[in-house]
Amino acid sequence: MTPQINNKINRSIKRYWIGSNRRWEKYNESLVDRVEYLTDLSFIKDYDTLLEEKNNGKIGHPYKVPDALIMYLARLRSIFNIPFRTLEGMLRSLAIIANIKSISYSEIFRRIRRIKPDLNNNINNKLDCIIDSTGYKITIRGDYLGHKWHKKRKGWLKLHVIISMKDVNVLSFTITDEHTHDSKAAKVLLNKMKSNILRIFGDRGYDSKHIYNMFGYNAIIPPRKNASTKSRGSSARAKIVRFIKKNSMEQWKENNSYGKRWIVEIYFSGLKRVMTEVIKAKKIEYIIQELALKVVNYNIMRGMTHAY
């Protein structure tokens, strides 16, 4: 029997009974499956073959472990923020169980740092996409210590992404410093993805003539409040500005379903909650690699999550 619900008192119960079509059994199982996939040890069955292939043609001292094991350790570090010395301890335990060789944390560090993260997306049709950016601090100390001891500010990095509106997966991304403007980074990303984008959604930070000229009226990006109604290099942008001036910004947003742009915030929220915002690397190139690995592994996890 469905309980009587007081709308003013308990809205969460109302959502549980009425609002969601989520299939919890399927969703819960997919959350388990995605971690099982990322921490899969089935490569141990072909361990000797993989190691032999890795050492084929190797000059000098041979490798003690194959790349599959290094990728396994890299995923553990990316998802759970495990230090390199802790990875060595875990590898020692695995070496005893699986009868394989272990390596030092310094060798684990060197091998992981050679990994080049890649999304490996295969896109065959045009999609509605969203472009946005978010910031990542490059130090784990709090602001108090920096202020108290007058530490030099280290700044932060910007993660720029293009996500698919349909499945909220990253199609392309780049990482820049805090001083790089969104529209400048967007040019690089959109030039690579232009053939796969039907419509591109973005906030005012992407109000750029280059982007309007690239996508025309399919650039669902609100222009600045003081935007000119004259073309001045982009007729598509000028036409949008004239429509807004004649009607209203709210009308333009409603006509173009601009509200769907907030879906990108779901992605950023999930990325920072699941993969955490902690980046333990010190050198800038290692910080960029760790952040890229988080994006790649979270993309795999999102692709394996099925809620409906």
UniProtKB/TrEMBL annotation:
GO terms for molecular function: DNA binding; transposase activity. Pfam families: DDE_Tnp_1. Signal peptide: none annotated. One of its GO terms (biological process) is DNA transposition. Residues 129-286 form the Transposase IS4-like domain. It comes from the Archaea. NCBIfam families: transpos_IS5_2. This is Transposase IS4 family protein. It comes from Ferroplasma acidiphilum.
